[in-house]
Amino acid sequence: LAARPCDHPPMPDHTSAPTSPAPTPALPASPWRRFMSCVYDGIVLFGVLFFFGYAFSALAQFHGESGLARTLFQLYLFCLLGAYFGWFWSNGRWSLPMKTIGVKVVRDDGPQGPVSLPRALWRYTVASIFFWGGLALVWTAGSAITAVLWVLLWLLPFGWSLIDRRRRTLYDVLAGTMLVRHDAMADRRGQKPAPR
Questions:
Q1: N or C: which end of the chain has fewer CB within 10 A?
Q2: Distances (CA, A) of 54 to 69, 75, 165
Q3: Whole-number Å distance between alpha carbons of 92 and 115
Q4: Could you write out the DSSP letters of every residue in 164-196?
């Protein structure tokens, strides 16, 4: 006898995981928020640099004279600033000024995930080259016209955020990062992408 077909409907497949909607991308931070965050961070860093700079001067008996001691002091401050920004820009962290203003550094990609420490240090290095290199060119300018031109060139990396669609500076573009509004980010608890 031929087997009768089963009259029961097929059981639903529960093996596929339910799909969740993609998180809403964060809004880019406005130039005004970026500027206020820089000013606030500058106030905090004034105290940090004063304390650690005084400690270096006391231990090394450095009083501002030119030579190897000054070079080491400048390198020391550069590394100190790198440690500050590298820590607070990486792995989803942010400084007190950034938290107060409501901004955060993220990767410039679809998920806008946290920035890794190497990427944060690269962002700091590129920004330092633009800032201190441009400032040195302005300082050594031979005439007023040359100084004005160097000032415009010095402000170009930061002014780029005024025309960029995602409000990125030139060092953000080179580092693959962007500054976003932290208060506009969706809650991603349990959805922390690995930093890259």
A1: N
A2: 14, 15, 43
A3: 7
A4: STT---HHHHHHTEEEEEGGGSPP-TT--PPP-
Cβ contacts of 114 within 8 Å, gap of 6 or more? 90, 91, 92, 106, 107, 192, 193, 195
What is the pTM (predicted TM-score) of this model? 0.76
Write down the pLDDT at residue 12.
Answer: 54
Please state the rounded mean pLDDT for residues 161-166. 88
pLDDT value of residue 26: 79
- CA 111 vs. chain centroid, Å, equals 16
pLDDT, one tens digit per residue, over 114-160 is 999 999 999 999 999 888 887 777 777 777 777 787 788 778 888 88
């025309």: which residue's tokens? 163
CA distances from 103 to 32, 53, 107 (A): 11, 28, 13
DSSP alpha helix (H) spans, the chain: 31-60, 68-89, 96-101, 117-139, 144-159, 170-175
pLDDT score for 4: 55
Q: Across residues 167-182, what is the average pLDDT?
A: 92
CA distances from 97 to 16, 34, 72, 127, 172 (A): 44, 11, 29, 18, 19
CA distance 174 to 170: 6
